[in-house]
Every structure is written in C-alpha cells, then in structure tokens.
Amino acid sequence: MADGGLALPAGFLLGCASAAHQVEGGTDNDWSEWARQPGRIRDGSDAAVACDHWHRYPEDLQVLASLGQNAHRFSLEWSRIEPRPGDFDEAALAHYADVVACCRDLGMEPLVTLLHFTLPRWLTERGGVRAPEAPARFARYAAVCAERLGPSVEWWVTINEPNVQALMGYLTGEWPPGKASMPVAFAALRGLLRMHAGAATALRAVAARHERRARVSVAHHVRGLRPARPSSVMDRLACLPVDRLMNRWWPRACRSGRMLPPVGRGEKVAGAAGSLDWLGLNYYCDDTVRFAPRRPSQLFAQRFPDPRRQQSSFGWAIHAGGLTRVLHELWDEFRLPIVVTENGVADEADELRGRFLVEHVTAVARAAAAGVDVRGYLHWTAMDNFEWAEGYTKRFGLFAVDRDTLQRRPKPSAAVFARICAAGGVPADLLDAVPRLTSVASG
Ligand code: BGC
What we know:
By secondary structure, the chain is an alpha/beta fold. The protein is built from 14 helices and 15 strands. It has helices spanning 20-23, 30-35, 53-66, 78-81, 90-105, 121-124, 134-149, 162-170, 182-209, 233-256, 321-334, 353-369, 412-423, 428-433, and strands spanning 6-7, 13-17, 71-75, 109-115, 155-160, 215-227, 258-259, 267-268, 279-291, 301-304, 338-342, 374-379, 399-401, 408-410, 425-426. The strands form four sheets. An eight-stranded parallel β-barrel has the order 2-3-4-5-6-9-11-12, surrounded by six helices. Strands 1-15 form a two-stranded antiparallel ribbon. Strands 7-8 form a two-stranded antiparallel ribbon. Strand 11 (338-342), helix 12 (353-369) and strand 12 (374-379) form a beta-alpha-beta unit. Helix 7 runs parallel beside helix 9 (182-209) and helix 8 (162-170) packs antiparallel against helix 9. The longest helix has 28 residues, at 182-209. It is globular, with a radius of gyration of 21 Å.
C-alpha cells in the first residue's frame, strides 16, 4: 500500500456474516421451542423479534454497502422455506431471492449458508440431524435453494459449524436438543456429515445442469490449542485428541470421504470425498490446554483462556497471532482456498472491537503475504443480535440495536471497518494506532 499500510490480495472479499434466527425475527424452529423452556436462555429472551431484519433487510444491506463492504454472508431459514416436509414456500424463497438481488445491486458478493444451527421442528420430531431421513431431506432443500438462488449465488456454505452444533447440542447439552453423551454427539456428527455430503452433491448437480458455478464449503469452527506449559509433554499431548476431533476431523472426513475414527469406523460416505471447494473458517480464539487425568469426558484436557491475554466479555482470550497460525495450519494440510467466514468479539462497550479488527485483518493480510490462499474476511457481525443461549447479553455487532425501538446505531468500530474496506487492507495510520501489532503474527 502506498501509505505503508498492509494490503489484502486483489478481489479480496470483505464484509459481515449473520444468521437468520439471530437477526430476522418471526422464525419458528427448534430454537424457538428451546427458548420457551425455562432457564435455557440466560436473560430469558427469545428471537421472536431479534433485529426484525426480515423486514428491514433493504436498509440494513444498504448501510453495510455504504461502509464499503463487497461481500455479505447470511443464512436461509430452512423452517421458513420448507415449513412442512416436502412443502416449499414460494414466498420465503422469493424473499431470499430478493436479499440476494439486493446484495448484488449493492455490489456485495452473497455467501449463502443453508443451515446455521436451527432445524425445522418437523425434523426434530423425527430425530433431528440423527434422523435417517435428514440427509435426503437436507439435500432436497439444498437443491430447491440452488434452483431458485443459483443464478446469483456462487459461494455456498452447507452447514455452519457442525462440530459446534454436535458439541453444544449433544455433548454439553446447552443447546437443543439438550443431549449430553459422547456416543450421541458422534451420531450427530455422522448425521451432519451425511447431510453435508448430500447437500454438496445436490448443489453441484443443480449448478452443472444449468452450467453455473457453485463453490461449496462448510463454515468450520477452529479453536487454536496451546499447551499451558509448553515444556510439559503431557500438556502438549493433551492438545492432540481435541485438535484431531474438534479441528481436523471434519475437513479430513470431507477430503477422504470416510467416516473417520473415532466418530465412525472409516466407512465411505457417498458424496463426501472432495466435497469442499474451499474452506470456510470461523475463528474466534485459542484455548490453553492442561493435561487433566480426571476428565475423561473432556478427553483429558482442561481448556481455559490464556490468563496473559485480554479477554472478551465471553471470556475468550484475544490473540490475533492465533488466527495467522490456524490459517497456516489449514493451508499446509488441506491446500484449499480459505475464507474467514466468521471472526469477531463479544464487547458490550465497543472498547475492544476497533483494535480487534485491525489486529485480525492484519493477521489475515500477513498470512496472505506469506502464501496462504485466503480470499475473504467476514466479520461477525453487523448488528448486536440474539446470541443463542446468551440471549441479548453478548454483543458482537458493529451496530448497536435499541431493544425497544430496534433503531440501529453505528459504534466507533464500524468506522474502523469502513476504513479497512475502503483501503482493501489496513491503512498505515490504523497500524500505527495499535502498538502491539508488531507482534501480531508471531507466537
Ligand atoms: C456462530 C455464531 C455465533 C458466534 C458468536 C459462532 O460460533 O456461528 O452464530 O453468534 O459464534 O458466539
């Protein structure tokens, strides 16, 4: 960059990511049901209104484009599109077609997620992601979406964070359906992999039939893991099973096309092999790991935030060097183009977000300069919204949303992101404003 700043590669995608249930309002799915059960959501709230983005999307998208964003990731709500099994709702599809058209008119590349945590209730009644019929149902839904939106959508995410959905819904039980068992979590992962494989096959088949391009991935959550005492062999060893299961299992299964151990026995999964054209990376933080002999259910690993780092209001340790490291690790192993499909910080007073943005976009630019094929950075998220079990208590937005009037108000960090978007990188004065930046890519 002429001013001494850090440039991102040409054509780099810069924007925000969101999810239907968290922003739209008016959704009716397994999470709506979950929120009705006492004690499930920290502040007793629900997503009935959320940000009313369902009605306000034209203005919301306009505002994002005016910040200079050239991309936008959002999810489709399956329960709206297929309210009853096999019954597809044309009005819902027309709505999402219009969202896509709005993005295009505003110069933003749409990246569309088919499933971001929420399931239609008719599917949960039949067993949710573990239902034998789930893969075929999800593939059919994917085909319908591809037929309708495919002319204007190239970038597809089949499933958002399948590893987190399995962990939170089936191992810790903090999310629906509230199960807490390792074998059940493995069964959920097997179901999710079959669903992804079916959807990837369907998206490509529709694209091929119409001679269109479909680039298919998942948004894969990766937690960087660091031994608490780097000199301790046991702490270093304790990182490995968690890394293998949380971070590597999914992309390895998609590369090999097999239900890899310990989740499966290596059996083939039709449509899974080579099902990722690119890798969507959701990165929030690293965890420090200490060997914990008395915690078999946690794979003998106690995970906690690095006490030397600043923490978000979620208690996640902030360290942009972790993002650089994860980008390198994924590139070295999988050699797939990467888009950072989520990265953000829970920060109620917007005290951390400006600096967080500068440091993390810098981390991405450094990885790109070192040869990692990274094509985009999508910040989580545009507006404060319904943060799952945390309700409205955690705020990840560049914009605050008044819970009474739903009025949007830009936070100071929105201007920082606008500068990054306008420059296509990190301008020199923003780099200078963050003294710790010199050490961002190291460690
Ligand atoms: C999810 C988002 C969530 C964010 C912050 C990601 O794991 O995809 O839906 O809001 O993290 O917790």
